Model the fold of this input.
Amino acid sequence: MSRGYRVRMGAPNWRPVTYHDAAKQVETADAIEMDVGVLEILPEAEMTALLREELAAAGWSKGQDGSMTRNSGAVEVTLSPDGRTVTARAAASRQVTSRATSEAQAASRLEEAGKRAERDLAEEVARRLGAQEGEIRGELQAALQKVYVQALRQKAASMGQIESVHEGRGADGELELTIKVRV
Done:
C-alpha cells in the first residue's frame, strides 16, 4: 500500500542582504642613513666637490638644493647637500578592502587587514633596503677611492713637481698609489 503526501511550500522568506564595502590605502616607508667619512686630503669643500663629480659621472643627478640622487630599482639614494650623509629610502603602498554585512563589521575587518598589510609592507621595504645596502656602500667606496686618488694627485702637485705616479694593486687587492714629488 502506498500513501500520497501533499507538501505545500510558500514563497521563500528571503531578505536581500546588503553588503558594506570599505577600502583604504596603506603606505609605509623606511630609510637607511650612512655617514660619508671623507678624509681631508684637501679642504672639505674641495673633497665634497670631487665626490659630487664622481657621483655625477656614475649617473647620479643633481638636485636644486645641492643634493644628489639616483634610483636603484625601488630604492632612492640621496647624498645630502653638505655631502656628509647618504640616505637610501624605499616606500610601498597597497590598497586594502573589506566586505561585510554591517558597516561596523566592515570597518573592523578593514582595520585588521590594514594592520596585516602594514606589517607585510614594512617587511618588504626593509628587505629591499637590506638587499641594496651592500651595493650602495660598494658604489660609495669606489667613488671615494677615485676621489682620494684625484685629491692625492692635486695635493702632491701643490707640494712640488710630480716626477712619477704609479698606481697598482697590492697583494691584498687594495689600491696602492705612489707619487714621487720633487720639492
